Amino acid sequence: MDGKPIVQLKNLSKTIGKKKIIKNLNLDLYPGQITGFLGPNGAGKTTTIRMMVGLMQPTSGDVMIDGQSIQTDFEESIQKVGVIVENPEMYKYMSGYKNLLHFSRMHKGVSKQRIDEVVMQVGMQNRIHEKVSSYSLGMRQRLGLAQALLHKPKFLILDEPTNGLDPAGIREFRLYLQKVATESGVAVFVSSHLLSEIELLCDRIAIIQNGELIGIKNVNELHHPQYYIHAEPLELAEEVLSGIGFPLAKHDKGLVIDSDEQHIPGAVQMLVSAGAKIYTVQPHRATLEDQFLEMTGGGQFAQAHAK
Amino acid sequence: MLKLMQNEWMKLWSKKASWMMVFLLVVILFASAAITKYVNSTANEGIEESWQNVVAAQQEANQAMLMDPNMNEAQKDYYTGQIAIAEYRLENDVQPFEFTSMQQSVLDAHEMLSLVTLFTVVIAAGITASEFSQGTIKMLLTRPVRRWKVLTSKYLTTMVFAGLLSVITLLAAALAGLVFFGIGEGTFLVWTGSEVMEGSYWREAIKLSVLSFASVWIIGTFAFMLGTVFRSSSLAIGLSIFLMFTGIQAVFLLSNYEIIKYYLFTHTDLTQFYSGFMPVPDITMTMSLIVLFVYFLLFLGISYWTFSKRDITA
Question: Which of A264, B16, B75, B177 has the most crowded CB, counting CB atoms within 10 A?
């Protein structure tokens, strides 16, 4: 990855009692990139995130934000971070605006103008002066995003941000995050256990299991082009396609072949002239779930769950 | 720090409970003045005792008190002063304040500060604990502000609130007195140690209120510590109020032991040095101030230590 990392986890570890919750985590995050943080429940996602924002103290190791340690230069480093930890809990007895005012006073250089700007950005100008207790979950989530963006952070960290949102809300949230990342060059770190959600949102995923980082992959790398072809009779199609030299595998009712787009018309032509009836030809994406299970070795995932 | 206190102040007054406290305080002060007026008008019918007789009786009683050999300096001073003032009144025909007068309600206002203690305990216990129970602590501590600053702003805000309630108590007592009794006859006298002089009753009332505030302050600090350590406002409120009542009772139980001199509640009432009544005679004002200060450091020390070390898992 090009550029300097904005966030670095260095041998981050946490021991609670005798149990090692987090074991020597090393991870770099880059500007403009959305990194997903995946893992089964209890793998240590939340603990890691809490150590990254100063809510928990690491037993050993450190978190560097833009070159400054979160432990020795807390105020300077955390100034660059916007945080949403699980459901954004606000002061329900105050209006959304007062909540934002409250948090803005805790940062240096957030003007009233900036508050209005953020309110517009998240589209809450009509209801910002109503009490938070009257807001829906989606509105609260947007207010949560607003408070995280107030001070123009270079790094946005979100713990299970889409918990409890409806599909439209999730989509809106996703598009918004992607906009922030690409337009302002903000590094985003999102934890979730929703694989499909992470797949749509992220450029890169880091997978944690039992407190250990077991893999970091770019989402694009995960996808080499594949096509799904359903043709009858199947045996004939298989014979023809493997005859041309496509690597293939059976999937569902048809076949999945590894191939670039440009070879597909030719393949179809061959199948037709061989007398096969073609029902479906479509691009095929292996889901992240498949990849995830592959990486975590499937069974272990279930084991971790059972723990 | 000012901005942080502004935040705490805003949150404090956004809660209905805070306004309710001010409202209740004023209502109780007015109600007690009204009740005093009513009781006085029915009970004293037909009994007309001149103030000279009352003062003479008090003088006699105080002289008897002075005979007690176990008295400490503060108590001796007090009774000597009271006797001198009584003599002066009888000689020069200077009347004390009537019991039902605005001036007397101002002078007695400090006794109502126990109510302020109660309200302060509620606020002090909740100001940190509620952040935990609402889950807003996560939002609060992921800001570029060190934890000790957050806690300091909360503590100072609590104390400003307590101070404000005390001022309201004094003013409401004056207003209630004015409404129900009016400005009564009489002159306020003070004993300087060598002579009797006319004095300002407002000054005396403020002095007594400031002395009574020590109790608000230390018990408020105690509740603040419990709220911070246990993260549960109900536990902190319950425990503080329980200790407030039993703690003072325990002074009488423990009065024969040496330990009583270092016991918090022996020292919480600083007006004892100016009222002649002291459950533990062998203490001085200086000693009380030192003991209170040590407890204060202890309470705050524990609060800061737990708050800045704690892992937030809420």
Answer: B177
